[in-house]
Design a protein that fits this description.
It is built from 17 helices and 20 strands. The chain is α+β, with helices and mostly antiparallel strands. The longest helix has 24 residues. Belongs to the TCP-1 chaperonin family. It is found in: Cytoplasm.
């Protein structure tokens, strides 16, 4: 009996080899179960309640996975990959094309399905590296195939491009809560993105939510809009509308400060005290005077603007708003030109912004300040209306998706058919390819091909169709060369999704495939988890931490 070598502190759980692989694979299946039913236009939504009891209703894979508290280390990887799909494509691209996922949901599903297909091989003791190599090959082939068959869109014809973008946006919105009004919103989204300059920065589209009113009351402001800020007396006397004003953007507080910073001033006579007070007032009036002289008509400041200043501006027909949130100030700066000043001494013409029209209007229960006709950057603000708060949040998420999709479609102008069509085509292509090669690779690429069918299958399941039946029809169609055939969710059948305008940018699909197969490779290549127990300091917390898997 040799003495056992104790290498790791006791209580460390290590599990190795095949059982570990299998358990990792199972963990990923569970994650996929969580988002499986959200795919596609007939997808269900999830209601997630976090520890603080805040309820979120969402249809978006990334949002759901973020809110789940995943403890299992291997499953965490999957969640992170889904999140990265989100970040990198900018925003969520769960672009459930009228049937056919995109971004996060389908990445998670595909990765889990890849793993599920190779699980029997792992159990039989096939080496993970062989699996990984096969997957790399298969992904490479699939990506090239997508690039081959993607159809590019003509940029020259503006109307043509516009209708295309609207279709992409409508496709992205169709699985969301707001799918009833997707015509309305897809127009709005395309308008919004078209207003931007070539960089297409997301920051330039602001989304503000105002409760109350109907969804259809939402509007797109071609410029910057923000909520009226807190204001003092005298505010009501200020004009609420200007034609082409100059705008001063400040980071200066225009109010009297109470001297509370332990400033001790010893005065002997009342006159001395008065002089101190006067000095303070003079400083303030001096600032105000400089602002007035600069010719600015609208004054926005990040810091508070006091009552004296408000009155002063009102007397001179100027509009002011204090405590404007920083990002709104920045967007105004980007839109109207000018720059944010931290002192009032250098207010020359070139640091003032300009816009064609400034007005304050009532939207719902809130007053909003709108700047329209901005010369500089092309920015816009979408003002969302709607009932419940959760509903508006979900609407915002959905619009964000759609904006990302449209933006991507503008940037690279090739599209493929959604609704499981592209997946079926790739599946057929890889299956045919796998028959031409000898050895284990054949089985694995076959497995990869089979795994791709999860997307159309899940679409059928979510819509309540007979998946096996429809998949058989699809396989037959693709074998005969109907390469854009996918699930037709409205008629429980298959249809040529390209002519049905169910499109999504090819980039989205390529990204989804690569991300999913990377995820699968990553998880397959782990064959041991070593978990150090918590040190004695939080020994009390350790048992809780381990068993805190939330249902």
């Amino acid at each position: 009996q040799p003495t056992p070598v104790i290498l790791l502190k006791e209580g460390t759980d290590t599990s190795q080899g095949i059982p570990q692989l299998v358990s990792n694979i199972n963990a990923c299946q569970v994650i996929a179960e969580a988002v499986r039913t959200t795919l596609g236009p007939r997808g269900m939504d999830k209601l997630i309640v976090d520890e603080r009891g805040k309820a979120t209703i969402s249809n978006d894979g990334a949002t759901i996975l973020k809110l789940l508290d995943v403890v299992h280390p291997a499953a965490k990887t999957l969640v992170d990959i889904a999140k990265s799909q989100d970040a990198e494509r900018g925003g969520d691209t769960v672009s459930p094309v009228r049937a056919g996922g995109g971004g996060t949901t389908s990445v998670t599903l595909l990765a889990a399905e890849f793993l599920k297909q190779v699980k029997p091989y792992v159990e039989e003791g096939l080496h993970p590296q062989i699996i990984i190599r096969a997957f790399r090959t298969a992904t490479q082939l699939a990506v090239n195939k997508i690039k081959d068959i993607a159809v590019s869109v003509k940029k020259e014809d503006k109307d043509e491009q516009r209708s295309l973008l609207e279709k992409c946006a409508a496709t992205a919105l169709s699985s969301k809560l707001i799918s009833q009004s997707k015509e309305f919103f897809s127009k709005m989204v395309v308008d919004a993105v078209m207003m931007l300059d070539d960089l297409l920065q997301l920051k330039m589209i602001g989304i503000k939510k105002v409760q109350g009113g109907a969804l259809e009351d939402s509007q797109l402001v071609a410029g910057v809009a923000f909520k009226k800020t807190f204001s003092y007396a005298g505010f009501e006397m200020q004009p609420k509308k200007y034609q082409s004003p100059k705008i001063a953007l400040l980071n200066v507080e225009l109010e009297l400060k109470a001297e509370k910073d332990n400033a001790e001033v010893r005065v002997n006579t009342v006159e001395d005290y008065q002089a101190i007070v006067d000095a303070e007032w003079n400083i303030l009036y001096d600032k105000l005077d400089k602002i007035h002289k600069s010719g600015a008509k609208v004054v926005l400041s990040k810091l508070p603007i006091g009552d004296v200043a408000t009155q002063y501006f009102a007397d001179r027909d100027m509009f002011c708003a204090g405590r404007v949130p920083e990002e709104d100030l920045k967007r105004t700066m980007m839109a109207c030109g000018g720059s944010i000043q931290t002192s009032v001494n250098a207010l020359s013409d070139d640091v003032l912004g300009r816009c064609e029209l400034f007005e304050e209007t009532q939207i719902g229960g809130e007053r909003y300040n709108l700047f329209t006709g901005c010369p500089k950057a092309k920015t816009c603000t979408i003002i969302l209306r709607g009932g419940a708060e959760q509903f508006m949040e979900e609407t915002e998420r959905s619009l964000h998706d759609a904006i990302m999709i449209v933006r991507r479609a503008i940037k690279n102008d090739s599209v493929v058919a959604g609704g499981g069509a592209i997946e079926m085509e790739l599946s057929k292509y890889l299956r045919d390819y796998s028959r031409t090669i000898p050895g284990k690779q054949q089985l694995l690429i076959g497995a990869y091909a089979k795994a791709l069918e999860i997307i159309p299958r899940q679409l059928c399941d979510n819509a309540g169709f007979d998946a096996t039946n429809i998949l058989n029809k699809l396989r037959a169609k693709h074998a005969q060369g109907g390469m854009w055939y996918g699930v037709d969710v409205t008629n429980e059948d298959i249809a040529d999704n390209f002519s049905a305008c169910v499109w999504e940018p090819a980039v989205v699909r390529i990204n989804a495939l690569t991300a999913a197969s990377e995820a699968a490779c990553l998880i397959v290549s782990v064959d041991e988890t070593i978990r150090n127990p918590r040190s004695t300091v939080d020994a009390a917390a350790a048992p809780r931490g381990r068993s805190r898997a939330r249902p």
